[in-house]
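Issue 218. Parser rejects a valid record. Input:
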Amino acid sequence: MSFPAGSLMDRYGAGITMKIASVAAALSLGLAAISWNIIVFMLALFGMQIASAFLFYEAAFVLLVQRNALRARRHIILLTLIVGFSSTLFWPLTSLLLNVLSWREVLALYAGCNIFVALPLIGFAHDLRSPSADNENNSENLQVGSQRSPRAVDLVLVTTGFSLTTFVFSALLGQMIPILSAIGLGQGGAMISALFGPSQVLIRLFASSLSERMGAIHLTILSSVLLSVATAVVAMASDSIMGASVFVVLLGFSSGLNSICRGALPLSIFGQNGYGRRIGLINGFRLSMASFAPYFFSFTQTHHGTIVALTALVACGFLSVLAFVLVTIRPAGPASRDTNNQRNSE
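Output the parser choked on:
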């Protein structure tokens, strides 16, 4: 659903599609709560996943860009910082609720949250618009267009880079405890893995200052390099608590930056026009890669060993770095040459 979701957000506005999706998510959760057999429950899960394409990070990125493209990068960083606490809050909250409520009542409660909490907040964010937003958005488009003339190959490279990083993240996070156990940490791996969440949040606290010193593409390259180094570290961290800790922290840093870059880089390269469609396209390929990454890693680990499986992920990480680096060194397009000629004449 990612690509059609992005196109619909471009056409009707992300605020409208997010409001509709919030209602759809509530109905799906409600259907799951009253499901009377596995088929109905499966249909409810299907509805939740469709709604999620219009509600999660990328949809919120589109809303922020449509509201004010010039300030969107700063707002994306703030959004990822806040939303980074969602799993930290809702995993234990759900466990606590299940001690006093049935699973059906918990699902019904979350359905109500979508209607009575999320829907009004989305509506407020949609209606809250800076009076100068249109002028600033036009300035952003002019600024982006004057700096570079993006080509189809740029979209291919960016999509490839994010797909590869998501593949590595999905494999590592889906097999985090088995990986740490395989290198000899046993039950201690669960405690070390808890460093991942705080590391994500910590790097996002410094993301604003980093983004002021580095362009979006350079921040993305840094994220990919951290991911490659983290994977290489755990491949060599046999029985080392320090090595495993460094791996988890660097992985958290990379993941925290990556969630920001997924919104900021396409805006930086391609501008505001068609942003939703491009985000949807990138997200579709990215999630497709993520869907089979844990199975790939598990199969490779079983048949060839943990080191070979991790080495394959290191290679994917370095290929993602290469894809993003190629975006920065490609020949300048016509717009870039026109801008350089104008500067020379001045």
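Fixed in the parser; the record now loads. The chain has two domains: 2-134, 149-329.
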